[in-house]
Amino acid sequence: MLETLGLYPSWYVPVIGSAWVMGIIGTIHVLASHTSVGASWLFALIETKAVRENKPELMEYIKKYGVFLLVFSYIIGSITGPGIWYAITVASPKGVGGLIHNFVWVWAAEWVYFTVEVIGVYALVYLIGKIDPKTHLKLTWTFALASWATMLLIVGILSFMMWPGNESWYQTGSTLDAFFNLNFFAHLGLRTAFMFAIAGAVGGILAATMKDKEVRIEITRFLSKMGIAGVFLGLIMWMWYVQTLPENARIIMQTQLPSYIAPTLFAVLAATLIYFAWSAWKPLQLKQGFAVAMTAIIAIAGLWPEERSRESIRKPYVAGQYIYSNQTIARDVEGKQIKSNLPQIAEHGVLKTHPFTPVSLREVTETNRLQAGEFIAKVMCANCHSMENTGLRPMPQKLHGSTDVAMIKAYLGGALYNGTVPYMPRIPLPEFEQQLVAEYLASLSQPQAAMKQLTLAESR
Amino acid sequence: MELTANETVAATLQVLRDPAGIPSHPVVFQVLMVFTWVFHMLFVNITLGSALLSLYAFQHRQNRHWNQLSQGMTKAAKVSVSMLIVLGVAPLLFTQVIYDPQWYSSNVLSAAWAIGFIFTLILGYSSWFVFYFKNHDGVKNSAIWWGIFGLAMFVLDGFIMHVLSYQALLPEQWLSWYSADGQADMSGTGLHAYQPGRFLFFMAMSITVLGAFLSAYAHYYKVREDKEHHYLTFVNRLGRKFTFAGLLMQSVTFVWWLFDLPEHLQALQSPLSWGILLFMAVFAAIIKGKQSREMPASYFSLAMAFGLIALIGIFREALRIHYMLPFDYDITDYKVMEDIPSTALFFMTLIGVGGLVGGFFLTAIYKAGRTQGMYQASKQVSQLGSAAVGIMIGWIAVFFLTGIWVWLHNV
């Protein structure tokens, strides 16, 4: 048992893969949480204006938006937050474990902020008109700063998922070196910019319902200015962000992302700018349905491809460029006394070292070799590849429908074994397991042939 | 040399631990895990109890006290779900730190349910919000279906959490669940093990906690002139009845749970088991006494309920330790990679932000809630507010200064 690897069971989701489950929950969370943080700043700024200029009528908008947030962000946002944990847990338990064990105290500090934030949003909404304005303003500013603090804390962890950006953390193992990584400030700037833009767009949904004409104009223009500032800041931060990405990420961006992503994102950006400019110019023409549509466009055509791209360009790693998406540890990390799993895999393969290999597959026979190949392939590949003809980077398509076992095996024993493809993990399977996986992968494009082989084997 | 079944499981648990180790002594995480779980469970119980009561009261809303209670409990459940979610994050986090092999394996083996938990909770909570928006004077009877659906989802989610927690205690069965027919089942669609006594015990605790919550509710509002005295007395009486009934149900289900436990745990001989039974008996006797003497409402029952949940939290952790003994799984031998800066970050945030900012928010809510009309903050509350803003600015400043220094140093 000394040769056992720390691999968990796998969860396989046909067609879309577990990665998409994670992506869907993540995108919903990003939309809800960024709206919430952005809105908290909007509240603080508008309320400051209301108190300074003695305009209590502006508070009605904050109340409306606040109640909306309670439903939108504090149902969906607060559930999908832990939801991302659950999703990563079942999609990549080793990945989330690595993050938790490096950043537990950061996450715990963020939890303190979550807690005060949830108490704060109820206080903010329900105490409007029930507590004196100056004290309420303090409450709102505290809430805004605490909300942003949750972003400050989570961005360091998300950035580390991309990469530490230098060798320091690998040597020291220090949480500070991991957290304040090369990618951190650019990523923080990008998310901060986005929170203003999305809060501006969502804010339009409520602004359009304000009955007082003057208030409606004032709020809508305020939202537009905030949104435009967010978009421009976001553009600058994006340019910086790209500079802080690792080589594999840039290669994936240039060669592997679907071709529609870049033009779609630019189109959404342009549409958002036009929307804000137009609503600043003609604030009374902003209707609720239009603001809802704009929010939906940003979420579906902007956020979803962006989040998906961010997940994709991190490949083949899931965290810190030391844990692969398939749960294996890709390199030594001296600062944490972590050893790479790859030498063990190269020497003993997966079947002998995976603690959850079904007993019947520990000895490969003529009758179970296809199942053994399937097990290894799913453990090593299914986190990123669907084994069906459609879905997430479908394996049969990636192999161009090949049924040539020798050719597939040559790839497994060559480029994949040596890790020469920048966006693919190094999977140094021993020769026997390469053969099993190749047979299984070939069978995906020729299921009838595989069935025949299986039937023949069983009849022997 | 061939390993025994238990030795094989023990070795698996060891290799599944995260190789990065943990940044402080394991007992620190254990204490925090149990402590934060108590708060989480308090709100779980308040949610389930108040949701159930609001539906019952809704059906009797022709009586104005029941009507008022239904509306109040609908709101209480709504806020309580928010709190249980956010307070559940901490024990979930600390569990993953010291019991990662157990938690992750259990989750992956029932992955579809773990993900289903998220979506059913969203659906249930949304449905509850609809019920909350509808549950006002003159509401139609059909509105109750929103509430029933919401509560059903909450109970389902409680059951999923129960299964995930219980499966984590049975590592010797994981492989057989994963490869039931000789092949790996990667669908994650199975719920493999549950313990009725344990699950029902936690459900019964919702009745006890609901009762305690009602007494506290009556006490909290007694200074408000717009809250009718008869109504608060009605609520207080109801609270005591629920607490007493809940404790009876808990006693029965606790014994059931004890009998469900494997013999090697010797739970029936444990002083902690008897201590919990004794605590519940004393608690019930006090409530009975208060009931017969028509004592006024107070926070006493809530404090006792909190104490009971704390005892259960300790009992639950003691059970887990004993479940793991045959596999030599001892959290104290988890690899420690001390990390002082991040440890300081948490504890300073907890004290500074949790204390000052949380304290300010809670004080403002508490004081304003007990005031009819607008609450004018006292000098102390106003100063607390200024300190809360100040601590936030200070925290962010330190964060950025540290970050820039580390970043420049590494770049």
From TrEMBL, chain A:
Q: Which InterPro entries match?
A: Cyt_c-like_dom, Cyt_c-like_dom_sf
Supply the alphabetized keyword list.
Answer: Heme, Iron, Membrane, Metal-binding, Transmembrane, Transmembrane helix
Transmembrane stretches in the record are: 20-46, 67-88, 108-129, 141-164, 184-210, 222-241, 261-281, 288-305
Record flagged with keyword Membrane: yes
Q: List the PROSITE patterns hit by this protein, alphabetically.
A: CYTC
Where's the Cytochrome c domain? 368-445
According to UniProt, the name of this protein is Cytochrome c
Organism equals Thiomicrorhabdus heinhorstiae
TrEMBL record, chain B:
User: What keywords are annotated for this sequence in UniProt?
Assistant: Membrane, Transmembrane, Transmembrane helix
**The protein's name in its UniProt record:** Uncharacterized protein
Q: Which organism is it from?
A: Thiomicrorhabdus heinhorstiae
Note the superkingdom of the native organism.
Bacteria
Membrane-spanning segments: 34-58, 79-99, 111-131, 143-164, 199-221, 242-259, 271-287, 299-319, 344-366, 387-408
